[in-house]
Amino acid sequence: KPVPGASVEITYPNGDKKTEYTDENGEINLPGVPTGDYKTEIKDVPDGYNVTTNKEIETKVDKDKETEVDYVVDKVGTLKVVVIEKDGGKAVPGVDVTITGPDNYEKTTKTDQDGQVVVEKLPVGEYKVTIDETNDGYVTLQPAEATKTDDVEANKTTTYEFKLEKEVTSETGDLKITVTDEQTQKPVPGASVEITYPNGDKK
Fold first, then answer.
1. pLDDT tens sequence across 111-154
2. pLDDT tens-digit map of 69-90
């Protein structure tokens, strides 16, 4: 479909430059221009689009002929990855993230201090995000939990959220309880004792 509102800088044979904008038909029509060598450069496109051809094109205008210059733009969106702790929602930085998508797109990076990865101007389509499921200090995710697939839509932000559970590690020791008869100093079997553990559990 035509893309109105794109700006194109035109360099004339004498070196003069002028910026024109595409109309509702996605066109810039300049009748009666001098013959000679021209250079066109697409400078800006509306939100939700990205230039997929060369931004600069050199061409020549001949006498009594119409010269056409064509640009192709893609609809694009933003992909956002968020990695947080399951309890409390604290950001998890430094997590390896791999993004794959259309036309063999692949990008590997790490979450920033906010636990995020943001990739802008991606062509619309289906993208798969996989995070490293063996992060130190966190419970290892199952492969299905470490991968999410969704569609990136034009001029929108698609968010992929992953939640990691902190790995609980604690030191252990031995506890021995003895109940004795005060007078005879002999062990007393069958006495019941309630034990409250450090985490509050009782047994």
1. 999 999 999 989 999 999 999 866 677 887 888 889 999 999 98
2. 999 898 999 999 999 998 888 9
Q: How far is CA 119 from the centre of its chain?
A: 5
46-53 contacts: CB < 8 A, separation 24 or more? Answer: 46/3, 46/4, 46/5, 46/6, 47/155, 48/75, 48/76, 48/77, 48/154, 48/155, 49/3, 49/6, 49/73, 49/74, 49/75, 49/76, 49/154, 50/74, 50/76, 50/121, 50/123, 52/123
Lookup result for tokens 């995710």: 141
